[in-house]
């Protein structure tokens, strides 16, 4: 395949940097546009520790531009100079809780930021396809399981609302201006260099510190945890495959697992005993489950390599190599 020029907005992030890495390995040309922000207070996050590790894997081959999605002139200029054939927008406040709390910021970054990306694409004269990173939160409470891409989209929070708005605008923009779109709906991504303190990171770190894991809703609700290299590979397939044009895909592990099962796996693979306690029902989160990935399998040839236990083993092995949580690994 002829090398493609791909611009990844938010490409220094957890998922974006892994997409960049895989595209570079395949000899495509990548420009990362990112403002290097973290919506978790830095003292509570490993952002400063993991960001250089992400960048190390891509900096020799990728062009990296510090820029904000708010900065429309810079976005337009960067696109005009680099002339990407494909643009991937990964930028968001990537957490439902933070998007709900900082409602206006979520509208600015998730929604208005994406509108700026679309405008820049319109003026670029080079972009043939753009990808938008949506979320399984667009479905709201699952009405059936596994949820396929035709499941009703009834988000119950600001995060899901901004994601669905961007999906709708992406499709109408694509029709109006004749530029292909692809929408990806990931779910609960976990693995090396994540810093956003989603449940998987919190559980693993608490377990390594010997702290008790809180099982909300009795720990029974299932989530489709997806290993980082699987989601990145799904994005790469959707970036390059002609079959992806104007399609929406669930890209996940394809199997829901409960927080209780997550804790049980950690207990099996970690050198320390994992403690849990039942917590009350959290009504703020949609009740989810497994996502149906048969469309991605059929059209893209996507096949997840990691179910939760294998993915967590990889994640734990990686953390061991970082030198963090040394005490836990000495046991
Ligand atoms: N990680 C998951 O579990 C998950 C699940 C579903 C959907 N998603 C979506 O996938 C996308 C990427 O998620 P992630 O986990 O890699 O998040 P991330 O926070 O690691 O990556 C987002 C990147 O965007 C950059 N960014 C943020 N605001 C910016 C701005 N104003 N201008 C320029 N750059 C900006 C950040 O610096 C960061 O590098 C997000 O849109 C998220 O909502 C993630």
Q: How would you characterize this protein structure?
A:
With 331 residues, the protein is an alpha/beta fold. Helix content is 43%, strand content 15%. The chain has a 7-stranded parallel β-sheet, with helices on both faces. It has a two-stranded parallel ribbon with strand order 7-10. It has a two-stranded parallel ribbon with strand order 8-13. Helix 2 links the parallel strand 2 and strand 3 (63-66). Helix 3 runs parallel beside helix 5 (103-124) and helix 9 packs across helix 11 (308-322). The chain is globular and about 55 Å long. It binds nicotinamide-adenine-dinucleotide.
In short:
Helices cover 43% and strands 15% of the residues.
Furnish the topology, listing elements before pairings.
Blueprint: E1 5-9, H1 14-25, E2 29-34, H2 47-56, E3 63-66, H3 72-82, E4 86-89, H4 96-101, H5 103-124, E5 129-133, H6 158-177, E6 180-185, E7 189-190, H7 199-208, E8 212-215, E9 222-223, E10 226-227, H8 228-240, E11 247-250, E12 257-258, H9 259-269, E13 275-278, H10 294-300, H11 308-322, H12 326-330
Parallel strand pairs: 1-2, 1-4, 2-3, 4-5, 5-6, 6-11, 7-10, 8-13
Antiparallel strand pairs: 9-12
Helix pairs in contact: 1-8, 3-5, 5-6, 7-9, 9-11
The protein binds nicotinamide-adenine-dinucleotide.
Tell me the CATH topology of the domain at 5-189 and 228-252 and 291-305: Rossmann fold
Please name the CATH architecture of the domain at 5-189 and 228-252 and 291-305. Answer: 3-Layer(aba) Sandwich
Helix amount? 40-55%
Give the oligomeric state.
single chain
How many helix segments? Answer: 12
Structural class: alpha/beta
The radius of gyration computed from the alpha-carbon positions, rounded to a whole number of angstroms, is 19 Å
Percent in strands = 15-25%
Major sheet summary line: 7 strands, parallel
CATH level 1 name of the domain at 5-189 and 228-252 and 291-305: Alpha Beta
Q: How far is the N terminus from the C terminus?
A: 49 Å
Q: CATH superfamily name of the domain at 5-189 and 228-252 and 291-305?
A: NAD(P)-binding Rossmann-like Domain
Order of helices and strands: EHEHEHEHHEHEEHEEEHEEHEHHH
Mean pLDDT equals: 95
Number of strands: 13
């Amino acid at each position: 395949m002829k090398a493609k020029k791909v611009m990844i907005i938010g490409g220094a992030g957890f998922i974006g940097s892994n997409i960049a890495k895989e595209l570079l390995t395949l000899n495509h040309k990548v420009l990362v546009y990112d403002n290097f922000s973290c919506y978790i207070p830095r003292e509570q996050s490993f952002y400063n520790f993991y960001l250089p590790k992400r960048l190390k894997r891509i900096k020799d081959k990728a062009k990296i531009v510090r820029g904000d999605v708010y900065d429309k002139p810079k976005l337009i200029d960067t696109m005009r100079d680099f002339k990407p054939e494909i643009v991937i927008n990964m930028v968001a406040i990537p957490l439902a809780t933070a998007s709900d709390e900082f409602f206006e910021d979520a509208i600015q970054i998730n929604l208005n930021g994406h509108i700026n990306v679309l405008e820049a694409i319109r003026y670029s004269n080079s972009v043939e396809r753009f990808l938008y990173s949506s979320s399984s939160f667009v479905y709201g409470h699952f009405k059936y399981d596994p949820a396929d891409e035709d499941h009703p989209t009834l988000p119950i929070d600001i995060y899901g609302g901004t994601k669905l708005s961007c999906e709708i605008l992406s499709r109408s923009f694509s029709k109006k201006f004749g530029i292909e779109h692809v929408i990806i709906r990931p779910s609960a991504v976990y693995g090396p260099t994540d810093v956003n303190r989603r449940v998987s990171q919190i559980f693993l770190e608490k377990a390594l510190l010997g702290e008790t894991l809180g099982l909300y809703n009795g720990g029974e609700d299932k989530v489709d945890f997806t290993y980082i290299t699987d989601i990145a590979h799904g994005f790469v397939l959707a970036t390059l495959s002609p079959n992806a044009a104007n399609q929406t895909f669930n890209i996940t592990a394809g199997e829901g697992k409960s927080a209780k099962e997550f804790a049980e796996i950690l207990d099996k693979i970690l050198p320390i005993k994992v403690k849990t306690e039942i917590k009350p029902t959290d009504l703020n989160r949609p009740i989810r489950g497994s996502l149906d990935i048969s469309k991605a399998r059929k059209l893209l040839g996507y096949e997840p390599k990691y179910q939760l236990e294998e993915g967590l083993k990889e994640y734990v092995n990686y953390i061991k190599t970082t030198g963090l949580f040394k005490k836990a690994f000495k046991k």
